Amino acid sequence: MADTLAGSVRMLCTNGLKAVFEAIGPDLERTAGIRLSADYGSTAKFTERILGGDVPDVVILTDEALDRLIAAGRIDGGRTDVARSFIGVAVRKGTPLPDIGSRDAFVRTLRDAGAIACSRLGASGQHFRYLLDRLGLAEELAPKITAYDGYAGGACADGKADIAIQQISELMPVAGLEIVGPLPDELQKSSIFSAGVGAGRAQQAAARNFIARVTSGAYDRVLRDKGLEPP
Fold first, then answer.
1. What is the number of structural domains in the chain?
2. Alpha-carbon distances, residue 130 vs 13, 123, 135, 163 (angstroms)
3. Containing domain of residue 36, as a range?
4. Distance between CA atoms of 25 and 89, rounded to whole angstroms?
5. Which of 22, 52, 114, 118 is at 20 to 30 A from 163, Cα to Cα?
6. At 143, is the secondary structure helix, strand, or coil?
7. What's the whole-model pTM score?
């Protein structure tokens, strides 16, 4: 631990890693000698916010978003991959687990569901909308799909939806949910969450040290416990 605090590090981070940082945040602050101020939200929302000029010390979003921010000059020094995430399906705890073991089974489950919850702006929501178009289900299922900001699984746990589709790492923290499993391989889209240092920020040294500690391997067990994989 540093003898003195390096300062406050402000981070904008995908919801997909919120549970991880809530678990490791105190240890990171102690070992990195910093105070961490974190906001969590969707990659799409934060990307536009940063492009608009609100550049934090640390950015952790999808790798595609980081590449876009690097190209726009909002990130210095490239990106560092933090974790790999997969999209999954969850139901309210105590209800029967639907079959999602194949493409056809997943389609039947979608058609049988009375209501479906998904992410509004997150990478999983964007991919789910793409899947609906690809499978020819967008018009048929539109009346029973509701998109939510933050943890869409909350609507399922509260009984407002029969199934929730989101990043597994965003479904796991929701009390009252049971994870059915990941999407079938042929329909799955894994996301890489990557970190970068905000361009022109005074805390760049502290931010780089913070990212180095996050990706050192010391927290790989926590990543797996929260439904993620090391990159």
1. 2
2. 24, 11, 9, 18
3. 7-85+191-225
4. 27
5. 22
6. helix
7. 0.86
pLDDT at 170: 93
Where do runs of H (alpha helix) occur along 52-101?
63-71
**CATH number of residue 150's parent domain:** 3.40.190.10
**pLDDT tens digits, 65-104:** 999 999 999 999 999 999 999 999 999 999 999 999 999 9
Ranges assigned E (strand) in 23-115: 34-41, 58-62, 75-85, 87-92
For every residue of 196-229, DSSP letters joined together read EEETT-TTHHHHHHHHHHHTSSTTHHHHHHTT-B
Distance CA 17, CA 159 (A): 25
Which H or E element spans position 195?
A: strand 191-198
Q: What is the pLDDT of residues 98-134, one digit of tens each?
A: 999 999 999 999 999 999 999 998 889 999 999 999 9
Percentage of the chain lying above the pLDDT 70 cut: 97
